[in-house]
Fold each of these.
Amino acid sequence: MVALAVVGAALSLTVGPGPVDAVVHVDGYAAHVRMAPNRSLRAGTVSLSLSKNGQPVEGARVRATVTMLDMNMGTFTLALHRTGFGRYSTADPAVGMPGRWGWRIVVRPRGAPSFEFTLVDRIRD
């Protein structure tokens, strides 16, 4: 598992190839991101467990905007829906090709300022 912390600045973390298991610390929040199988042409899941001060964060809105970084393939946005106490998830559609994909994750906790981070995901066949 990869863990990084940042306070008050943009964060970009390189992950992959293969399954992702990373924790990002931003402004007192811990966002535990998992992606599997994280391969081109294969659907999978993207999940995020969100906590602050060790307690799960309920009622957040989580969105991921995905962009191919190596060529113009357009972008798509995924909403991660609540799947448990402080857990948010979505089915990850199969990306059409291997390469570097940017995942901009925006988290809007209820009653608190939003924050974001970016994953640069190296996807292989």
Amino acid sequence: MSFRFEKLNVWQDARIFVKHIYEITRKFPGDERFGLVDQLRRAAVSVALNITEGSDRKSDVEFRRFLRMSITSVEEVVTGLYIALDQKYITQKQFDNLYQEANNLVARTNSLVKSISKP
């Protein structure tokens, strides 16, 4: 048995994104543990969780709403990454890689939104 969300490529991408955010935030200063680290991790996890929750909704309208919330969470992560870059917690290369991953995740999510919007 499997759940619907497990078959979604965008959910699989979100899991990888979460993994990368956790990996990078492990190297942040200890005094950021309950600040930026926590915020970045919660926002990244929210990406995958919103896809999951929306996938089980009984209407495409609700599913699209959760997918849009997922996109908002990706954008929250990107803002956190800018802050991490400004504080020199991450390098420009790390930022660029995660920024590209975020863009790809948003693009795939938007594609899914469009595909379930068609009559």
Amino acid sequence: MLIMKNKYDQELLRLLSEISTDKAMSEVLSNILTPAEREELAIRLQIFKALEAGESQRSIAKRLEVSLATVSRGSRELKYGKPGVAKALKYD
């Protein structure tokens, strides 16, 4: 089953990497994510950006109206996870 899921993951990555405009990306994300899922991803990005900028976890939680645990999970991911988001933010 893992091989099949990996194939689907690769197809998703390929699809997303081939999108060249913000409008097209917005439309694709609207098709594949619920509004709640899309909002959650957008908030996660803001958490990562704020952490990278040095904002305190408590301040982020209060400003974004999320739990401190949510911000802490983002912090752990930046510290111990793959460097994808951190690298991407440096190019932003």
